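Person: Show me a sequence?

Helper:
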Amino acid sequence: MTPEKLNYLLVLAEEQNISRAAKRLFITQPTLTACINNLERKLGVKLFDRTHNPIRLTGSGKMYLKKMQEIVAAEQLLNEDIKKLETQQTEFRIGIGQIHSEMWCPSLIHLLLKKRPFLNIRIREAQELRSMEMLKNDEIDLMFGHISLDIVNFHFEEMCEEKLMLIIPENLMPKVILERTDQELLAQNSPGCPLLIQPDQLSSLPIIMPSSTQALYLNLKQIIQQYHIDPVRTIQTANMVTAAAMLLKGLGYMYFSPSVFPLVNIPNPKQVYYCTLPKMMDSRKYYAIYKETNPNIETILLASQILKEQVIPALPS
């Protein structure tokens, strides 16, 4: 039964008069009478006692009306749930850190929408631990990060391996290193050709650190403890673009990826030296992380493929 026909019964039950009910329903009296007659004939029972005035529901009519209200309400709820599910499947939610969002998302979203032009996309920029929590609670469909935890509940697909190194501005670079290093090596210094330095040469330098809630902070703390480095001063920030800008102002050295530098725009930046320590971890892997049971799995796999095969290779190395 449609909600419209159910409404006919409800109004007639309230008005207890066919003429008044038809007027209230904006239909003719014969139309309402025909509707009731057809329904009673189909059911084989009388729903209304029309031998008396006012018209009243029979016992069967009361039961039928009550059950039909429950059925129609349940159907409406089902329709709403189906619509919500359909909306969820046309919305794609990505969890990603701020820096990689700036570097990757414009190109990723541009290419993804070429394949899925009607896709609604929500980017949730958050620290990795928070993104992992959102993924666990189905608040996002896909996250990008380097935390490879919980392989039971999540699938991890490697996207790239990002270089990590110590980067020291020229005003803080120990003179002993510059004096003892071959000039040709200094000229070749780059992310692909870092200078090997000793831990004790860092202890007298100020350092710029990521926030303690960021994954990179754990890597840095491990290095500080492993090499017994005691910074003379620390500056801490959760924004790595801000941190890189302060480095280029000569306020401290950093342990991070030089891929952040293209996002920084400040006047008269300091020259920097790319360095490493003996046996220092010099890279970290980035993953696409998701649940394989996610209803948006096709879009997840497509987005991961686009990032890995088109977006990342096109970025400056």
Observations:
- The chain has a mean pLDDT of 89.
- The chain is about 45% helix and 20% strand.
- The radius of gyration is 34 Å.
- The first strand starts at residue 48 and ends at 49.
